[in-house]
Specification:
Layout: H1 3-6, H2 18-37, H3 51-65, H4 67-81, H5 90-104, E1 114-120, E2 123-128, H6 134-147, E3 157-160, E4 173-178
Antiparallel strand pairs: 1-2, 2-4, 3-4
The protein binds zinc ion.
């Protein structure tokens, strides 16, 4: 019997779920404050904003709240931004991240990018040379991996390749992806 089936009849009282809601609310209000401090209090999805402000916001979230929250934001990104229905497989989805990024960023100047390369059966590598934090991309890759995990794979593992990392001032991070 798996852990999941053994608790399938168990119920939880809503009261015990309220702390989750409260915790999210706390982060929400802090996040709103940080956004407001950078002139992003009322974001219009169709308008364009300076990327530098977004980077400042991410830097403040990382230092004041923590890198796990940066990663949590990344994990929400694919669903909120959306992927076209034509994307069906994991590799298509990883390949599409570059296109999605280009749809949501514009120059002048280099905006950086995402470079996905298949490395063999059930293996790939993503090189991120955009200015966003390492943890944000890690969250994005994990979320996309979970969303498009093939039915015959138990997991999609995203591992940062040792060496170059934007956290250390390098221009790119590479992530090995296995499923
Ligand atoms: Zn990195």
């Amino acid at each position: 019997m798996t852990a999941r089936s053994s608790v399938s009849q168990v119920e939880i009282k809503g009261q015990a779920l309220l702390p989750i809601v409260a915790a999210m609310k706390l982060i929400h209000s802090r996040t709103q404050k940080i956004l407001a401090a950078h002139g992003l209090s009322a974001i219009d999805g169709d308008k364009w904003y300076p990327m530098s402000r977004a980077l400042e916001v991410y830097e403040q979230i990382r230092t004041e709240i923590g890198p796990n929250t940066t990663k949590a934001v990344g994990r929400k990104l694919p669903d909120i931004v959306g992927l076209p229905p034509s994307i069906q497989t994991l590799e298509e989805a990883f390949g599409f991240i570059r296109v999605g990024y280009q749809m949501h960023h514009r120059g002048p100047g280099s905006i950086g990018s995402y470079h996905y390369e298949a490395m063999g059966e059930r293996k790939g590598r993503m090189v991120c040379d955009n200015p966003y934090p390492c943890e944000l991309d890690e969250g994005i890759l994990e979320a996309v991996g979970e969303k498009f995990r093939p039915k015959d794979s138990l997991w999609v593992r995203v591992e940062h390749q040792p060496g170059s990392c934007r956290k250390n001032g390098d221009s790119a991070c590479s992530y090995n992806i296995v499923w």
